[in-house]
Amino acid sequence: MEQHLVKRKNLDGDEAKIMELCGSSSSANKDARAKLLVAAKSVIAEKLDREKGHLITDHSVFNAHARQYEREFMEDMTALGIREPDVLTRVTEYVPQIITFVETIIEKGLAYKSNGSVYLSLDSFQAAGHNYRKLNPAGPGGAATSAAEMAEGEGALGGGGTSEKRNPSDFALWKASKPGEPAWESPFGPGRPGWHIECSVVAGDILGERIDIHSGGEDLKFPHHDNELAQSEACFGCNQWVNYFTHTGHLHIQGLKMSKSLKNFITIRQALEHNTARQLRIMFLLQAWDQPMNYSDQTIDDARSKEAAFKSFFREVEALVRDDYLAQEVGWRMADH
Fold first, then answer.
1. What letter does residue 184 receive in the DSSP assignment?
2. How many helices (H) does the chain have, and how many strands (E)?
3. Quick one: which H or E segment has residue 213?
4. Cα(58)–Cα(223) distance, rounded to whole angstroms?
5. Residue from 279, 271, 100 nearest 200 by CA
6. How many angstroms from the chain centroid is the CA of residue 128?
7. How far apart are CA 175 and CA 187, in angstroms?
8. CB atoms within 10 A of CB 280
9. What pLDDT score does 150 carry?
10. Is the distance from CB of 161 to CB of 117 less than 8 angstroms?
């Protein structure tokens, strides 16, 4: 109910902005039009995607879009003082390896082609001695997996329904592309990698056929990480691809889970307009890593207070170091404390 009220409030706010801008005087038309586009961009973007999205086939368009946000992300990491990664990869540069990975699973009899897509056969996978849904069990072999979970397992662009599958819980390793989606040629037909496959292929290429520690958000346990495990164990022929998983809690804004649909999200750049990178680090360090984390006025105030205490302590230490403390009597005595 609380989330519904937030959505309703945001929609009412957007509607009020749009109506106000539509009624602006002619002398301010140019500025009003610019503000109108900003206020209505989410609605306009959905309409354009629905009506014109199927016409976009040039990979350079997808690449340019990805590079923009890739660059912004790296700039944000620099602003937070986070070191650059040792290895940086892009799934679009791994398509040949992904095709080989999928072919290997097919050759082992653990995946099958269907209407230009390829699915992992959970029946064959389990018959070969593997277990499914290790991180978020749902009965033997995931038998209690719900329809909503299956839809989530294919990602937002899944489609295709269950008619292509031998088992409703089978998940895509390769998907035939729909109009407006990027497509690459493959032995299975023109398509794109499934939602989970890229992580297995890239991690396997960089780290090898066994991984010690794997991390992600708690919402990725199922389907993403469970499906990662299944396809990797199918390809590499092992029963334990990852030794340890660490799953972090969701970020909440003023008590509600941060969500695009709720429009209660805050960008790193917006957060840094009011706080230092150090204050943000302390704020997260003061909260349990495996529980929901809250970004609010209170948690930020707590972080600032803790930062002030640390600064005071280190100033006193610096003052003591500057003095010739070795010329004085040193030691610790109970009576002094």
1. B
2. 12, 9
3. strand 211-217
4. 30
5. 100
6. 32
7. 12
8. 18
9. 67
10. no
Where do we find the tokens 């004085």? 328
Q: Which of 195, 188, 193, 177 is nearest to 54 (CA)?
A: 177
Both tokens assigned to 203 = 């991690």
Q: Which of the four pLDDT bands, split at 50, 70 and 90, describes residue 139?
A: low
Which pair of tokens denotes residue 255? Answer: 């008590």
Nearest CA to 184 out of 121, 105, 98 is that of: 98
Contact at 8 Å (CB) between 214 and 220?
A: no
In the chain, the N- to C-terminal Cα span, in Å, equals: 55
Look at 27-36, 121-130, 174-183 and tell me which has the smallest mean pLDDT.
27-36
Pick the closest to residue 222 from 202, 195, 243, 240 (CA basis): 195
3 state SS of 145: coil
Question: Which tens digits make up the pLDDT trace of 210-247?
Answer: 999 999 999 999 999 999 999 999 999 999 999 999 99
Q: pTM of the predicted model, to two decimals? A: 0.81
Q: Which of 273, 264, 269 is nearest to 296 (CA)?
A: 264
**pLDDT tens digits for range 255-311:** 888 877 777 889 999 999 999 999 999 999 999 999 999 999 999 999 999 999 999
What is the C-alpha separation between 170 and 284, in angstroms, rounded? 38
